[in-house]
């Protein structure tokens, strides 16, 4: 998803038919997406250091969804994951949804 979106914005930057204002917006979006990707990667790695085998994080606007590879998650583990996601992704705890698989 990120790759396709970044490719689209890059094509806009390379285009000679769009305005400099549109190019500036495209550049801002590229920066935003790259920052989001970096924050997700950092959050996933920090969560893995807490002993989880694997985690996948999806961010859609204000909503953050995380799928943790674990048979069961204790309330303490859920709180750890929530705290990391809230801090790294600037998300409200109420917008963080965690499930296990």
Question: Which structural traits does this protein have?
Answer:
101 residues, alpha+beta, 3 helices, 3 strands, elongated
Task: Explain this structure.
The protein is an alpha+beta fold and 101 residues long. It has helices at 2-14, 20-48, 75-89; strands at residues 55-60, 63-68, 96-100. Helix 1 (2-14) packs antiparallel against helix 2 (20-48) and helix 2 (20-48) runs antiparallel to helix 3 (75-89). It starts with a helix and ends with a strand. The model has no long low-confidence stretch (mean pLDDT 94).
Brief description of this entry?
With 101 residues, the protein is α+β, with helices and mostly antiparallel strands. It has three helices and three strands; from the N terminus they run ααββαβ.
Indicate the radius of gyration in whole angstroms.
Answer: 17 Å
Helix percent reads 55-70%
Write down the overall geometry: elongated
Number of helices: 3
User: What's the β-strand tally?
Assistant: 3
Main beta sheet: strand number and arrangement?
Answer: 3 strands, mixed
Helix/strand class: alpha+beta
Strand content: 15-25%
Which spans have pLDDT < 50 for at least 5 consecutive residues?
A: none
The separation of the N and C termini measures 22 Å
Strand order of the largest sheet: 1-2-3
Secondary-structure element series: HHEEHE
Mean pLDDT: 94
């Amino acid at each position: 998803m990120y790759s396709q979106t970044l490719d689209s914005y890059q094509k806009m930057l390379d285009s000679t038919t769009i305005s400099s204002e549109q190019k500036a917006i495209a550049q801002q979006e590229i920066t935003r997406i790259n920052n989001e990707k970096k924050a997700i990667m950092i959050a996933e790695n920090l969560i893995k250091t807490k002993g989880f085998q694997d985690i996948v994080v999806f961010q859609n606007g204000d909503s953050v969804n995380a799928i943790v590879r674990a048979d069961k998650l204790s309330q303490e583990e859920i709180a750890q994951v929530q705290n990391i996601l809230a801090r790294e992704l600037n998300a409200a705890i109420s917008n963080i949804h965690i499930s296990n698989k």
